[in-house]
Amino acid sequence: EQIQxxxxxxxxxxxxxxxxxxxxxxxxxxxxxxQRLPSHVxxxxxxxxxxxVNTYIDIKLRTAL
Length: 65
What we know:
By secondary structure, the chain is mostly helical. It contains two helices and no strands. The protein starts with 9 loop residues before the first helix and ends with a helix.
């Protein structure tokens, strides 16, 4: 949503560039982790408890635990 907005200042340009760079690096890191640990949990802090429980249940259902 914010990326679609027009850039009007150099400060906004640098902030947008940093956000795009960060997202690309984060996505690359998640892909790398998924290769070694396919059941890792990637969640925002506010969603972490539910994500952990759901991951645990998924693993249990696959009898991997």
